[in-house]
Structures are given as structure tokens and as C-alpha cells.
Design goal:
The protein starts with a strand and ends in a 13-residue tail after the last helix. The chain is of the alpha+beta class and about 425 residues long. Strand 5 and strand 6 form a beta hairpin. About 25% of the residues lie in helices and about 25% in strands. The protein contains 12 helices and 18 strands. The protein has a domain of about 210 residues: 3-Layer(aba) Sandwich (Vanillyl-alcohol Oxidase, Chain A, domain 3). The structure holds flavin-adenine dinucleotide (FAD).
Length: about 425
Amino acid sequence: MITGKHWTTDTPGYDEERLGFQRREPHRPAHIVGATTPEDVQRAVRYAGEHGLTIAVKASGHGHGTPLDGGLLITTTRLNRVTVDAQNRTAWVQAGATWQQVIEASAPHGLAPLSGSFPGVTAVPYTLGGGLGLMARRYGFATDHVRRIEVVTLDGELRKAEDDPDLFWALRGGGGNFGIVTAMEIDLFPVPILHGGSLYYDLATTPGVLQAWRDWTRTVPDSVTSAVAVLPFPNIKQIPAALRGKYIAQIQLSIIPDGLDAPALVSNLRGALGEPLVDTVGDLPFSESGRIFDEPGRPDAFSSRNALLSDLDPEALASIPKLAGPGAAVMCVVGIRHLGGALSQKPAVENAIGHRDAQYSLTVLSPGEDDLRAVHDEILAPWSKDAIGRSLNFSMGPLTDDELRYAFEPADHDRLRWLRGVYDPHGLLQANHPIN
Ligand SMILES: Cc1cc2nc3c(=O)[nH]c(=O)nc-3n(C[C@H](O)[C@H](O)[C@H](O)COP(=O)(O)OP(=O)(O)OC[C@H]3O[C@@H](n4cnc5c(N)ncnc54)[C@H](O)[C@@H]3O)c2cc1C
């Protein structure tokens, strides 16, 4: 028996329910269950098991990858309660809560989660894939700060993953391959205010901007997490006049100000580069942290490929405008994030995240339905010398088994494959990045 809301292909609302933020190759399930309780998830899993239906899970759909054809889709957007324990600095977060909801529940206590650049992303799937956030260099991956996980395994049982060291290890970094998480307990941090925002430079008039940012990242303390996005802005009136029609490097800064002269650190960067075209940097309440990257919130079709790098090679940096600039075959956004700091340290309770020695993450992303793997691989080719792995969260689109293996340390990948067989012996669950 199925409980919770239920759709089949001819039920009104089917399309709204199956679609999410990512519109490329959407799910086409035979059944959708809109879970409102963990018991709804249990019943959906048992129903799928009895009828031999493949299961997929969707929250806000930012990380949608492998589409489900037939089968049963569990949507979690209604399972979205957030409960903050201010004294213990933790939050109990249900599977469908977005970071915005977690941030809003935490802010009245002067606390903040390890959320990322876009607050509309769902906290649980982000964390299952690692979670590289605005305070990453200071506190590490979001998944390093998970205390408890409630999960429905493929036998329909509701379990406490922390009681099973293998399951707890695999869920933290191995993505949605081992069960349907209904909630998790995460750490919160006493960070009410960030010093952050973006500095926008025109690459035509400030060609040294990427190199200057690279040099600056080598000087900053762990309380500074920063990134740069390189992208052509269209020449349309919706874009601020100063950026319209230009090839822009947007330096994105997120600084935890405690004990630091954050404005002085940013001045060092401005000093090296001159005045930006647009400058949004200043003190902002954590609840407005989405303004730092200021990413578009409109659902779209897109794909991306990622490389984790031990260094940022100056020659490869210089190749970005040539290979991914306005002359490229398709629009490309190259995003580079500065890693290191606490991201390099293993957490107290180990998890499946590897490649912790990576110093930068580089992603190339393009809008559209097409398979752009060849275009993206050409842009990533100059970085191959320093590439040591890939991030699951920043790989939007299907990966081959070998490509997926590269997201993990080899021994960890072997262990994840083995655990897949243990927790999903009949291969019922299809994650966005399936471990086969
Ligand atoms: C604009 C944008 C900004 C982003 N910024 C960041 C960032 O700063 N840092 C970062 O690390 N990542 C970032 N990401 C990547 C993001 O964290 C992943 O794509 C994540 O998977 C998105 O979760 P979702 O709920 O939005 O996506 P969904 O597509 O709903 O879920 C993604 C996958 O997670 C699995 N899943 C979902 N819910 C469950 C569950 N309850 N139990 C088991 N498995 C489940 C499923 O396999 C599903 O296909 C960003 C993505 C976008 C599009």
C-alpha cells in the first residue's frame, strides 16, 4: 500500500511533481509518491520492492542526473521540518528542507549551517554528496559535520545509520546510493555575520584577474573561502549596465570576520587589481549569504564537468578565455573554488570523502540539453597535469563508471561498491550518480 500523495502519469500535477530545478532529461516515473512522513517512504519502498520497481528520489532537483524511466519516484519536498537545538548547536533537518529553511531556523540563535552558494539547494542531498560551502576552508565539508542519519534502507526498514559504521560511512560522501534518507542531524556554527560579496572585473581590461586571485588565495587564512566564476554576460537590459556584453571574472568572497580585519584582506585584492566594475562586498547577515554568489534561481537545463586540482597552473588559467570565452561553441561558465584548510583534514568519524589534498575545484558548466562532454573535456584538458579527482556535487550529468570511480579514493570506491551490494542487493535504488 502506498501512503502520502500519489501520482501516476495521467494524474493532474504529475509534471509539476516530477520536474525540478534541473530540466535536462527529467524523470518519467510510472508512480510518484510525495512523502510527508518517514512511514510514507517506508511504504513506497516496500511497494516498489513488491512490484520490482526501480526507485529514485528527488528533492529540489538541482542535482538531478540519471533519469528514471518508469519506476517509482519519491519526492521529499513536503518532508521539510527543521528543528534547531541551540544549546547543542545542532539542527535536525528532514530530507526536503532547503538550506534557506535551515538558515532561517538557525539565524535567530546566532547560528549558521555549512550551506553552499545557492540557498535553494536541499540540505540533505548536498550533504550526501560532500557539501562544499561558504565556510568550507574553516570547517570542512558539510558531511564532516553530520551527527546522526535516519534512513529507510531498501528492505523498507527505518534505521539509525550512526548505529551501523559501514552505512554511516557510505552515506556521508557516497551520495544517494544506500537508502532514502529521511532526516539528519548536523552541526551549526556561531557565525551570524559574514563579510562577503562579489567583485566583478572585465577580463578585457583586467586580464590578470585570475592570476591575481590565485596569488591572493595563497596568502589568506582558513576563515576566507573564495571562488571565481568566469562567464560572458549577455547584452540585455536585465543585466546591470556595467556588466552587459562583457566577459567577466566574478570573484566571490565569504569571510568569517571573527578576529580578522576582513576589509583589509579584500583591500589587498582590490589593490592588486584596481576598482571592479561592480562591488557587492560588505558585512551581511548569514541569512543573506545567497547574495555572495548571486546565482540565478530559474529552473533550466544544464550540464557540467569537474576536476579537483592540486594546483592552479598559470598556463591553464590563461587558457580559459581562449577555450571557454565568448568565442566558444557554447556558453561556458568556469567556476573555480579555493579548497584546502579544514577540507584537507579527516573528520573525527571518517567518511567516504577523499582527495582531501585538492587545493582547488574547477567546474565548467553550460546551459542546454545537448551532450557537451566533448566540449567540456577540451576545456578541462589543460588542467590534466594537476587533476587528482572530481567532485560528485559539481558533476551535473551522467558519468561513466570509471569517471565516477575518480570521485573517490580507489579503496573507498571498492568499499562503496561492496556496500551497495549489501544495502541494495537487488539494485532497486537509482541515484543521480549510480555506483555500480
Ligand atoms: C545553483 C547550484 C548551486 C550549487 N551550489 C553548491 C555548493 O555551493 N556546494 C556544493 O557542494 N554543491 C552545490 N551544488 C550541487 C548540489 O549540492 C547537488 O547538486 C545536490 O545533489 C543538489 O541537491 P538537490 O536536492 O537540490 O537535488 P536533487 O536533484 O533533488 O537530488 C540530487 C540527488 O540526491 C539524491 N537524493 C536526494 N534526496 C535524497 C534522499 N533523501 N535520500 C537519498 N538520496 C537522495 C538522489 O540521487 C538525487 O538524484 C549546487 C548546485 C546548483 C544547481
